[in-house]
UniProtKB/TrEMBL annotation:
Signal peptide: none annotated. This is Transposase. Residues 21-146 form the Putative restriction endonuclease domain. SUPFAM superfamilies: Restriction endonuclease-like. Residues 1-23 are annotated as: Disordered. The lineage of its organism: Bacteria, Pseudomonadati, Myxococcota, Polyangia, Polyangiales. CDD domains: DUF820-like.
Length: 273
């Protein structure tokens, strides 16, 4: 969400308290970094990835473009953040447990490298970089993946996963995430549905269907028992009162079977003579 009026770029060095929510900037080492609008492909990915991950049963908080500032000279906003995203105003002070960045054509790779390092140094456990240009893939970065290179640190992915493979984040996500669910709409919807069902106590759509079928069979059996009881009463020359008919309609299968057994044994409505 952007402000109606954008603040003018502050002078260097910049601190996080000089940036307002919605201003198109991040800060790295007190240096102002302009954040440009996201293209169509990237914006779709942000929406799908955020929805898929936020719906995971283990996730308690998530955000899109959430700014976090663990110290005054640093302000970073991953495309998707999982964990440590409260509803309080202002910048988050703790890094997300899982951060997702979407990288498309024209990506500033040097800044992306720096952003990954800063996230990992601040406590993020995993950074997933979803590559939308060229062959689709997801690069997984972890804290142990960085290495010194002269005066500059280089971060390398611990793993690179492709469509058909699954991403995991133990302790953060309950379910594995298919690579394609982070950019393909149909795959994202399928995984989101699975996650939402699990939040309601169902393991899958198949489990919901099986439960509905079992419930339907049980209801059908109960109706058959009620009809059989009425026929049995009529065969014995008995007539159910309105109160007895209401009682039969309210009975479950166990009660109906018990009533049928009693009727066969006593040939009357059970109870005192």
């Amino acid at each position: 969400m952007r402000n109606d009026k954008m603040t003018a770029p502050p002078r260097h060095p910049v601190t996080a308290d000089q940036i307002r929510s919605g201003d198109p900037y991040e800060i790295s080492g007190g240096r102002l970094i302009e954040v440009l609008p996201t293209g169509r492909r990237g914006s779709r990915g942000n929406l799908m990835g955020g929805t898929v991950l936020d719906s995971d049963p283990a996730v308690e908080s998530a955000g899109v473009d959430t700014g976090f500032s663990p110290r005054p000279d640093l302000l970073r906003a991953p495309d998707v953040s999982i964990g440590n995203v409260s509803s309080d105003p202002g910048w988050a002070t703790e890094a997300p447990s899982l951060a997702v960045e979407y990288a498309d054509r024209g990506q500033d790779e040097a800044d992306l490298q720096q952003k990954i390092l800063e996230l990992l140094d601040a406590g993020t456990r995993w950074v997933w970089v979803v590559r939308l240009h060229g062959k689709r893939r997801v690069e997984v970065y972890e804290p142990a993946a960085s290495e010194p290179s002269g005066a500059r640190r280089i971060v390398r992915p611990a793993r690179v996963l492709h469509p058909g493979e699954q991403l995991v984040a133990p302790g953060v996500l309950r379910n594995p995430v298919p690579v394609e669910a982070l950019y393909d709409r149909e795959a994202a919807h399928e995984i989101t549905l699975r996650n939402l069902l699990q939040r309601r106590g169902y393991e899958s759509l198949e489990a919901v269907q099986a439960q509905a079928m079992a419930k339907g069979l049980e209801q059908g059996r109960a109706e058959s028992l009620r009809a059989a009881l009425v026929d049995l009463y009529e065969a014995y020359g008995l007539v159910l009162s309105a109160e007895q008919e209401a009682a039969v309609q309210a009975m479950d299968i166990g009660e109906l079977e018990a009533l049928r057994a009693a009727l066969k044994r006593e040939r009357r409505w059970p109870g005192p003579r």
